[in-house]
Design the sequence.
């Protein structure tokens, strides 16, 4: 990306939802010079806590565990026992938008509230009654929040 002429080298906006939101936040925290801003939709900051609650250690993870009905390899869990995403993925100092549903039972909103507190420059937009993964009016509201966020980045 940095070699392309049509890419702003230090102003990349990373956008991620659910696990992609957690990965985007972790990437921005590890490579802040390359990222201009983050927009996170119902980010799965609970992944590490979920893994640690499910298994007592990496050695306890089966070779082919299921997550929400999807079979993953044991390697998926490598590293999840040595980190706390609400801490490790919230070191980015640039502008951050977090949009999360108050009725999310997959990733409880408390994780996004903690992340907002940990980031230096984060705004949390809570959508009442919204669950994990937005649709309909909730999706439209989240898009409006993101549009406003991007517009503010331009000014």
Sequence:
């Amino acid at each position: 990306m940095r070699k392309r002429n049509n890419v702003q080298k230090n102003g990349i906006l990373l956008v991620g939802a659910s696990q992609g939101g957690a990965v985007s936040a972790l990437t921005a925290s590890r490579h802040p010079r390359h990222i201009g801003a983050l927009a996170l939709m119902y980010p799965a900051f609970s992944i590490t806590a979920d893994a640690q609650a499910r298994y007592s250690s990496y050695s306890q993870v089966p070779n082919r565990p299921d997550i929400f009905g999807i079979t993953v390899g044991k390697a998926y869990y490598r590293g999840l026992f040595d980190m706390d995403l609400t801490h490790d993925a919230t070191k980015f100092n640039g502008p951050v938008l977090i949009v999360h549903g108050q009725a999310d039972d997959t990733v409880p909103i408390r994780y996004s509230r903690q992340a907002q507190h940990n980031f230096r420059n984060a705004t949390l937009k809570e959508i009442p009654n919204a669950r994990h993964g937005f649709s309909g009016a909730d999706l439209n509201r989240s898009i409006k929040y993101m549009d406003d966020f991007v517009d503010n980045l331009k000014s």
The longest helix spans residues 136-154. Strands lie at 12-17, 35-41, 66-67, 70-71, 96-101, 122-127. Helices lie at 19-30, 47-54, 85-88, 110-118, 136-154. Residues 12-154 form a domain with the Rossmann fold fold (CATH 3.40.50.1820).
